User: Which sequence fits this backbone?
């Protein structure tokens, strides 16, 4: 096994939106119809490296386009739990 | 394969409160035995598939012998994801072909809780983080696969709705279907968006049901029926490196064919029959997009040709290649252990000419089935008169 550093930016290979509440567990957030905010999910292609699946910061399909440039950021899921996500580069 | 199907049975799919998964399996098994004119004691072998039965929330398939009779029959339990039923059929066919036994029962049943499948990540060998962050949903994969496919091959949202409308319409002609009400393309398109570009009515839902077949040596089929259905091939394949599969945290940039492509190719090769000879097919429609993509993956058309084929009605019951004539998963729901045998049950009805209002015209002689499931397994069968 060898560590490899990924580029910070890549392109959106495909995406969808999560518009119903995932069951918890396994989802870490326990949501209700009042609190739930849909989120985007996609694969970002890092040229010559891999396509990586992750949450997107954007959940409006009208603002997402296959092939658009994305950058890796950190988001807080619940207090004290952080994960990576992909944000459109505008 | 020198094996014939001589009896078929099905328990209606849907929601059946107070009826256990095994109850449904027993019901389907008895119907298949009756159809073959056989008694339980005549059976030499059995293979039964169930996901919930093997995960401990329902009785395991082999416990059926307590209901059907303690005859000492060897009973093999099978759990192989969405390919469970097809794998059970393969187990039975292999036992017959090996000369071990002359006949066998194949049964599949399941009973899932309501709502989307949301297994624990560890079941698929994934880290807990994958579920924590909200990625452990099969529906996201289907949506992302069809979204990319629409982008690459020009499939329209209108065509997604058309597929679901067809399957609901076919389901309305099937007394064993869960959804028996036609739903218009407009209603489908305007139903709640679950995972872009897929709306609520484009998806199948997990449910409950059972199906069974009795198989025997092809040279003995005439003892049981004058309309045997011949099993020409059964194939099961798992994913290769680089295929885009459900619940994959990452993918290599170079994409390879899906396990469905591999399983279909193996199935047609073994049968010596080509996709162009198939006259009726039941293929995995976890949602409308899956049916569209699986048309090409199974070899029924080139990528992108589905748009024109579906718009022209070629996959309707009266069309050139009728697909999911019993309503598919969209109208029947998904009891994982039973779905593959539901497809085979429908092909047997069609080849026997017993499909009633949804009978494909012209006395079809060649039928095909395909299921696909997590974490990347495909299973196909080719059946003929």
Assistant:
């Amino acid at each position: 096994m060898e560590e490899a550093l990924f580029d910070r930016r890549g392109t959106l290979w495909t995406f969808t939106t999560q518009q119903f509440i995932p069951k918890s567990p396994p989802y870490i957030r326990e949501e209700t119809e009042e609190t739930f905010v849909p989120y985007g999910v996609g694969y970002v292609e890092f040229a010559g490296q891999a396509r990586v699946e992750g949450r997107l910061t954007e959940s409006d399909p009208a603002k997402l386009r296959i092939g658009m440039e994305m950058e890796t950021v950190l988001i807080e899921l619940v207090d004290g739990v952080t994960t990576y996500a992909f944000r459109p580069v505008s | 394969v020198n094996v014939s199907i001589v009896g078929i049975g099905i328990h209606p799919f849907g929601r059946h409160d107070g009826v256990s998964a095994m109850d449904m399996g027993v019901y389907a098994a008895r119907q298949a035995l009756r159809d073959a004119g056989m008694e339980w004691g005549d059976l030499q072998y059995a293979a039964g598939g169930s996901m919930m039965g093997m995960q401990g929330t329902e009785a395991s398939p082999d416990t059926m012998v307590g209901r059907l009779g303690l005859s000492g029959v060897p009973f093999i339990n099978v759990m192989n994801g969405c390919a469970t039923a097809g794998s059970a059929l393969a187990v039975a066919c292999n036992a017959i072909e090996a000369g071990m036994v002359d006949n066998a029962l194949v049964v599949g049943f399941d009973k899932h809780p309501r709502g989307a499948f949301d297994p624990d990540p560890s079941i698929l060998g994934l880290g807990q983080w994958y579920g924590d962050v909200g990625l452990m949903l099969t529906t996201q994969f289907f949506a992302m696969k069809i979204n990319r496919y629409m982008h690459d091959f020009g499939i329209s949202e209108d065509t997604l709705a058309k597929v679901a409308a067809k399957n609901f319409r076919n389901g309305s002609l099937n007394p064993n279907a869960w959804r028996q009400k036609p739903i218009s393309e407009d209603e489908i398109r305007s139903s709640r968006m679950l995972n872009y570009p897929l709306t609520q009515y484009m998806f199948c839902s997990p449910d409950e049901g059972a199906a069974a077949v009795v198989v025997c040596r092809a040279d003995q089929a005439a003892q049981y029926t004058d309309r045997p259905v011949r099993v020409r091939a059964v194939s099961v394949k798992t994913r290769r490196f680089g295929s885009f599969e459900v619940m994959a945290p990452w993918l290599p940039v170079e994409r390879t064919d899906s396990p469905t492509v591999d399983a279909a190719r193996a199935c047609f090769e073994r049968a010596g029959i080509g996709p162009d000879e198939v006259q009726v097919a039941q293929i995995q429609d976890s949602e409308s997009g899956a049916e569209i993509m699986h048309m090409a993956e199974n070899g029924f058309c080139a990528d992108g040709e589905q748009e024109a084929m579906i718009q022209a009605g070629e996959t309707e019951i009266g069309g050139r290649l009728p697909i999911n004539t019993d309503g598919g998963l969209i109208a029947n729901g998904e009891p994982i252990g039973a779905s593959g045998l539901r497809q085979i049950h429908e092909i047997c009805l069609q080849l026997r000419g017993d499909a009633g209002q949804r009978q494909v015209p012209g006395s079809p002689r060649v039928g095909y089935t395909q299921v696909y499931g997590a974490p990347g397994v495909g299973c196909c069968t080719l059946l003929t008169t």
